[in-house]
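hi!! sorry for the late reply, been swamped w classes. u asked for the two structures so here they r. pasted raw, havent cleaned anything up. first the sequence of the first protein and right below it the tokens
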Amino acid sequence: MQKTFSSILLLLSVFSSNAQVQALVNDEVKLNTMVARWELDSTAVRGTFLVTPYKTIYIMPFVWSSSPNEQPHSGNTSPDYTPSSKVNYDDVELKFQLSFKTKILQSFLWGRADLWLAYTQISHWQLYNSELSRPFREINYEPEIILNFPVKFNVFGFKARMIGVSFNHMSNGKSYPDTRSWNRVILMTGFERKNWNIYIRPWYVIPESKGDNPDISNYIGNADVNVIYAKNRNVFTFTGSHNFNFEGNMRGSSTFSWAYSIQGNLRGYLHVSHGYGNSLIDYNHNQTTVGVGVSLIEWK
């Protein structure tokens, strides 16, 4: 138990350092609007090669799963992907996410576009499973390169602020039979209205990248929408994905989170998800998860 709490304290110290990074980048421009977060006009521009937030940064010491994926399997029928023997995972684990971006080119392509590099990492840690020596059950690595254009037009009362396209790679770094990965070209459009931010992201999966999991789009889907509402000390976020298979098995996922400001950049964090793709190894596994912890940065 002492080792468990020491590990949590170490992670919290890392997150505290990240909060200091956020505070530094917030000095001149508060990152509470889409325009500021993506530097979409001259008042928000801060130059290149400055590390800034991307997606939510959080740590949840307690995440409960209704159905831990104890024997993952792939849609690839090759003998290389024969499922391993069943592993006795706990239904409670620790989960954390780190996510940053940096602009590497500014105001190019007729003075309109910015080019960003981004990196997100999600870790699922069986911290309380002493029988298995507390392993990391799954770590997902997600680098991407994003080309972003600021725009200004109205749609149903919302202001369109940005249109972008990214090349996104995601993998879990494992060997057979548990290796999972895919490459996507993602279109991203951002809308803003008062306390609301909405991101819509359809994607195209590069076929050659689906060898580990050829049916991944059937489960995780072909697009997602991210809806964020911030008011007073609260940030509410809903993310949903769908495979748009209206003639067969409709699948996807839905995630709700609530972040409540405790002090400064520190927020209490509640996270509830249902469906497929809680991680890459779980891409075709349906489960419900509930997690509690703290967040430092929200995706908005």
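now the second protein. again sequence first, tokens right under
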Amino acid sequence: MKHQIKKFLLLPIAIFLSWTTITSYAQNQPNIVLIMADDLGGRDLPAYGNRFNETPNIDRLVSQGMLFRNAYAAPVCSPTRASIQSGQYSARVGIFDFIPGHWRPYEKVVVPHHDVQHLPNQITTIGESMQSAGYKTGYFGKWHLGNQEEHLPNNRGYDKAHTYVGGGFYNPKFLPEYEGDKDKRLSVALTDMGVNFIEENQKKPFFLFISHYDVHVQLDADKDLINKYLNKEKDPDYPSNAVYAAMIEHLDNSVGRIMKTIEDLGIGDNTLFIFYSDNGGVDNRFDNIPLLGGESKDIYPEGNPLRFIATENNPLRAGKGTLYEGGIRVPLIIKWPGKIKAGVTSDAIVSSVDFYPTFLELSNGNRPKGQTLDGFSMLPALTKNEFDLEREIFTHYPVYHHEEPMSALRKGDWKIIENLVSGEYDLYNLTYDISEMTDLKYSFPEKFLEMKEKLKEWQKNTNAKFPIPNPAFDQERRYEWGKNPYSN
């Protein structure tokens, strides 16, 4: 409970814990496993209150570890992935939209573009830092930070990597090519890669990153699992999309197999196990076409709304591609036997930028020279339930998607959102208004001014990019989507 939480200022990671504790962690150099879902919403898991989807393995992970209520990511995939690899907010690293990026050529403003369509070369990745600390590193799955060979994970700090580059869930293609069973579903193949990597490196400290494509559109899953959920009683307060639920079960099966491998090898006590999502859930596609694909495209007949609705994030507002809570608040569950209490919930405000400094502290690694790290180590929150109640989390999404370009700051209970087209602001109190329905800027003018100034200061500090007026604005054609001219 909040009245039991020790409040303190977040300081550089070198003084977070006593040197004795840090030395203890560094000597053990715990293994780190990060499993990341794609587009899994903040309310899609039973652990977060969902009453339709089934995740027995993730439920067991929750019972053995810590569940975070206030974990954040960027609103779409590439910015979150870039922030994990760099330890920087997407505005600073320069990857603020998915690669290559959305484009509406006739809108009111011209949105900014990435300087490069890959993770910038000067960035020292978390993989490279972990290698320098003596870890074996593995990356399997979606990367979305550049598909040219020199930008793939096996050239950006990962000893072994297979990057998913297309083909869908049942005909996946990888770079480098994967020599395993090519007839396996993508989630199964990625799990196989992870299991093999763990078995090969069980005697050394290792960092394993499995980046799933589930539950991204186009939705597709095994028919037997889909039938299971088609025949299940529906939750009247949730879409209960059977294909989406089946994809979540595919994710859960992967988590279960990785957990079992670690347990069977007897290395669980020295392994930090993380489950996370790259952004909020997709309620429907931004381009309003059906979101079912593959063999599942006709599971729901013409006229059925579930051809267009994957999930909902209630009581969180909106979803992927927005800076409302439904777009950026995500599931996060972390297990570390003997270090993290089992079956506990944390109110700590944490972000994707926090993984880098956390992993550095665990591995006794060195901060990359000349590279700003925007996050803080999560170890105090994980091991002592200590965190800053007034933590600031910034998000910047200066492009069109499900909403207009926006920038946002959460500080403690308060959140401000700036519309980068109109220049208007909204101020919300998330403790009393989790759905972000009541703008309080006129009721709390001093708080509004404080939050506005902090957001502006951060935007300047990170050299955040902004839209500019569009001389080709066309009221009749403004909602048309085009190809990003900077995609190449």
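hope this helps!! also noticed smth abt the second:
The two ends are 50 Å apart (CA to CA).
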